[in-house]
């Protein structure tokens, strides 16, 4: 019987059980209060959730969500700290390339693979029985990983560009509203306040006096998130999203009408310029009483830290800030709009790169495209 074209293309691949090429190792306990300031990424099931001064794994590795965002797959190129809601893989069996394995795992619908009794989770013994196809030649594995990682590397470069742009906007904010270095301040009279000397006519207010929380509509979770869709679903980790859904967004946002987002517990903070929905404990808000959201975002961004707020919105609501007149806040918003538009452009490019990578991924990982 003549082989099909697909069978012919994958004849140098072997079918193996997942447990034959990897071991899921348990992450380690690391409560937030025990984390020390450092540069080591701390991984939870939704990605990086913070940083620490000492890695638990001293080499690159794969992180797979065990609880919470079950089956989410992440890759760390540097030493890292996986917490106890994840499995990690820092070595492979049968001479399997680690980076190739990362892309292989990212295709597996782990959410559908068993669960612990009474608590949703990834059962590794069940996962070990899954059958996957792997190229016999490690060099082919590396080439496949190289093609896919080229997209991820460009996305990473773009992320750094976006971060630099945001830091530029934050520096402008500091110059205008913290250091008072503009020429307009030369003839300004300063007065005492509970936050130190401030320009006359400015006020010290609670943040709740100039913001408005937005309703989020339906709240999503890992069970009803889709791998593809029109509307991204925000989670609490720095990775950003747990997936997508179709239909009406919970919150509408655009470049002209951005939305600031605060996440309970992790204190992660982001600016959204596209429609989105949320999981529980993701809190969107906008500027109020004439204050632009861009001003409010940069006003609060530098002060949101886990150590200060303990990760809860009520503590955030109690913070006080030096608030300028609305007209000056609006001038700042107008001034940094071009920077924000560049950030959005970079984000859209990343979305296109990710879509192309995800289009190639199944074709490369099945042998349909031969390298």
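Q: What amino acid sequence fits the structure above?
A:
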């Amino acid at each position: 019987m003549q082989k099909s074209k697909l069978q012919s293309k994958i004849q140098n691949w072997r079918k193996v059980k997942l447990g034959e090429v990897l071991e899921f190792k348990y992450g380690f306990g690391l409560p937030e209060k025990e984390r020390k300031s450092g540069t080591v990424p701390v991984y939870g099931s939704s990605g990086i959730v913070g940083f620490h001064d000492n890695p638990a794994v001293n080499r690159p590795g794969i992180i797979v969500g065990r609880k919470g965002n079950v089956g989410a797959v992440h890759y760390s190129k540097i030493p890292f700290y996986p917490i106890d809601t994840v499995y990690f893989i820092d070595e492979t069996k049968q001479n399997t390339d680690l980076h190739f394995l990362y892309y292989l795992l990212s295709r597996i619908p782990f959410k559908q693979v068993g669960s612990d009794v009474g608590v949703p989770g990834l059962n590794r013994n069940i996962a070990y029985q899954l059958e996957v196809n792997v190229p016999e030649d490690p060099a082919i594995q590396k080439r496949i990983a190289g093609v896919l990682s080229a997209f991820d590397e460009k996305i990473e470069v773009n992320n750094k560009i976006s971060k630099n742009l945001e830091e530029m906007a934050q520096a402008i904010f500091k110059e205008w509203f913290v250091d008072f270095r503009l020429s307009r301040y030369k003839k300004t009279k300063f007065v005492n306040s509970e936050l130190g000397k401030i320009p006359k006519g400015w006020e010290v207010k609670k943040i709740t006096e100039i913001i408005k929380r937005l309703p989020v509509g339906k709240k999503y979770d890992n069970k009803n998130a889709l791998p593809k869709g029109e509307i991204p679903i925000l989670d609490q980790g720095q990775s950003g999203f747990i997936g997508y859904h179709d239909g009406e967004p919970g919150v509408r946002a655009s470049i002209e009408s951005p939305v600031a987002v605060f996440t309970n517990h992790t204190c992660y903070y982001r600016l959204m310029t596209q429609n989105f929905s949320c999981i529980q404990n993701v809190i969107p808000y906008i500027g109020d009483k004439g204050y632009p959201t861009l001003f409010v975002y940069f006003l609060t961004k530098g002060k949101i830290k886990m150590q200060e707020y303990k990760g809860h919105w009520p503590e955030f609501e109690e913070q006080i800030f030096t608030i300028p007149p609305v007209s000056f806040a609006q001038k700042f918003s107008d001034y940094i709009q071009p920077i924000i538009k560049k950030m959005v452009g970079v984000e859209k490019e990343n979305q296109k790169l990710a879509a192309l990578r995800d289009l190639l991924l199944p074709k490369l990982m099945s042998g349909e495209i031969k390298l």
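Q: And what stands out in the fold?
A: The chain has two domains: 5-134, 161-342.
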